[in-house]
Amino acid sequence: MHPIDTVKTRIQSQAIFSASQHQKSILQMVRTVWAVDGLKGFYRGIAPGVTGDTLGSFVYVPCEVMKQRMQVQGTKASWSSAMLKDNISMKPGIHMYDYYTGMFQAGCSIWKEQGPRGLYAGFGSTLARDVPFAGLMVMFYEGLKDLTEYGKKKYMHNQNFHINSSLEGLILGGLAGGMSSFLTTPFDVIKTRLQVQGSTLRYNGWWDALRSIWITEGAKGMFRGSIPRVTWYIPASALTFMAVEFLRDHFKEGVSIDGVQEVASLTVDKKNSPLQGSA
Q1: What is the distance between the alpha carbons of residues 56 and 267, in angstroms, rounded to a whole number?
Q2: 253: helix, coil or strand?
Q3: Which of 111, 113, 169, 217 is deepest in the core (most CB within 10 A)?
Q4: How many other C-beta atoms lie within 10 A of the C-beta of residue 113?
C-alpha cells in the first residue's frame, strides 16, 4: 500500500514544487515516478512510515513529516535535477531542504534546520483530519448496519437466511472507511502541504493553507489525491471492522457458553443440596 500513499503525497504536494496550475493526474504521476525514479521511488519513506504506525501517535507526526518529504524527493538524481529546482517557488534567500539519505539523517536534518517546529509541522491539521475521520467512520458504519438490518427485515422473508457478521463487517467497514476518507481529504491535503513545504513557508499555518488552496485551486485542489487516499483506507477499514465483528461473535459465544454452564451448575447444586433431599 505504500506506493499508493507515495502517489497520493506527490499529487497533493505538487503546488509546493511547481508554479504551474496544470498538475498531473494519478496516471501521469504514476508514469512520472516510474520513469524518473523506478520502483525505488514508490517505496521512498517507507521506514519512517512503518515506524510511525508502529510506535503510535506520539511519534506519528515527526515520522509522517520525514516520510512525506522522502516520498516527494524520489531518488537523489531526480531531486537534484535542475528542472525540479527551477520549478520550486521559494522566497528569496530561502533554500529547499537537501536530499535525505535515510530516516535518521532526515530527522537530524529537519531538527537542525527547523527544530521541533519542523518535525511537528501539520500537527494541528493531523488532529483536524484524524478526529473527524474516526467519528465519521463509526457513524457511517453504524448507519450502514442499521440500513442493512432494515433491508433484511423488509425484503428477506426467509427466517433461516443469515449473513456472516465478519463478511458484513468487511463490506460495510470498507464502505464506511472509503466515504470517511474522501470527506476528510481536504484536511489531508492541508497536512501534506504544511509538512512538505519545509522552511519555504509558502503557507503560514493551517488557516492560510486552507484559504490559499481554495482561492488558487478551488474544490479540485482541496480534494487532490482523494482516489489514492480512498484506495488506501477501504481495505484497511474493511479488515478492521471484519476483525471487530469476528471478535464480537466469539465473545458472545463465550459468554453464552459460560452462562449455560453456570445455570447447569446451579441446577445440579440445587438438586444435591440437603434442603432438597429433606423435602
Answers
A1: 49
A2: helix
A3: 169
A4: 13
Provide the strand spans (E) within the chain: none
Helix-strand-coil split of the chain, %, nearest 5: 80, 0, 20
Q: What are phi and psi of 271, to 5 degrees?
A: -70, -35
Cell numbers placing 163: 449473513
Residues 6+ apart with CB under 8 A from 270: 276
28: number of Cβ within 10 Å:
11
DSSP letter at 99 equals P
| Among candidate residues 207, 181, 179, 178, the one with its CA nearest the CA of residue 193 | 207
More confident position, 58 or 165:
165
pTM here is 0.67
- Distance of alpha carbon 247 from alpha carbon 243, whole angstroms: 6
Greatest Cα-to-Cα distance within the chain, rounded to the nearest angstrom: 101
Cell of 14: 505538487
